[in-house]
Amino acid sequence: MVHLLRKPWLLFSLATSLLGAAACSGDGDNVVLFSIEDDKALGDKVAAETDSTYRAKGQLLERTNNARAYQLLDPIVTRVLNNGQLAHRNDFPWDVKIIKDDATQNAFATPGGHIYVFSGLIKFLDNESQLAGVLGHEIAHADRRHTSKQLQQQYGISLLLSLVLGENPNQLAQIATGLGQLKFSRDFEREADDYSVVYLNNTSYSCDGTAGFFSKAQSTGQQNPPEFLSTHPDPGARIEAITAKAASLGCTGRTVDNASFLELQKAL
User: Fold this and answer.
1) How confident is the model at residue 225 (pLDDT cuts 50, 70, 90)?
2) Distance CA 167, CA 147 (A)
3) DSSP letter string, 184-201
4) 41 near 2, Cβ under 8 Å?
5) Comparing 19-28, 89-98, 183-192, which segment has the lowest mean pLDDT?
6) Residues 210, 133 contacting (CB under 8 angstroms)
7) Which has the higher per-residue pLDDT, 185 or 62?
8) Which residues contact 148 (CB under 8 A, 6 or more apart)?
9) What is the pLDDT of residue 170?
10) All residues at 6 or more sequence positions from 233 whose CB lies less than 8 Å from its CB, including other chains
11) From the CB of residue 134, how many other CB atoms can be counted at a distance below 10 Å?
12) CA-to-CA distance for 260 and 72, rounded, in angstroms?
C-alpha cells in the first residue's frame, strides 16, 4: 500500500473511505485505518527517530558495544515472541533495544514491533519471569496494534499517513519523544495484560510475571511510576485480573534459573 499512497488523490480517497468504514462500525477508536505495511513503515520511522534521540543523549546501548547484554536479553524476547499466539510474528521485524537510564522503570513499543526497555526497569525487577511478563505486555501492544490505534486516535489518520510518506519531520520527533508516555485506553491495557499471560503460558516462565512487577512497583510507592502502571485501570485491579487469568491457565509458580538475568542486570 505504501507505493499507492504516494499519489495524493489516492491518499485522500483511501482516508475518506476508511473513515466512513470506521464510522459505520460504531467502534472507530478501535479500527486501524492503514495497512500492516504502513504500520511497519511508520514504526521504522518512529524507531529511527527514537534511536537518534537517545543516541544523541548517549543513552542508546548499541549492540556493537554491549554485545553481552543483548546476548542475555535476546533469548528472553525470542521465547516470548515464539509462543505461537502472535498475529503478526512474521509480519513485523521485532527487535529490542536498551536505553541506559537507571532512574526510569519503563518499556514501550512502536508500531511494527520495535521494543525499547530502560535499564532502570531491568534492574528493578526480581526475576526473569517478571521481565518476560513486561516484555509480553509491550509485545501485545504492538501485535494487537494498540500503539497504532492510540496514535491514530490522538493524531488522526491523515497525519500518520503523512509521516509514512516522509512528511512532517517535527511531528515525527514529537511522537517518538512521547511514545514512552503514551496513554493507552483501559481496554488496551487490559488486553495487553491478558495477552502477557497468554504469551507466557506457552513458555517456561511463570505466566503471572507482569503481576509480580506491578506488585513490587506498588509496594515501593514510586513517585514517578511508568505510564502503563499509572493509568487506569488501577494496578490493584490489574494484578487481580492477571492473577486470575494465570490461575485459570494453570501456569503460575514456575521457576527459572535466574543466573542469566542477574548477569544481565550487572551488565547494565
Assistant:
1) low
2) 20
3) --HHHHHHHHHHHHHHHH
4) yes
5) 19-28
6) yes
7) 62
8) 32, 34, 39, 42, 111, 160
9) 81
10) 186, 189, 190
11) 27
12) 6
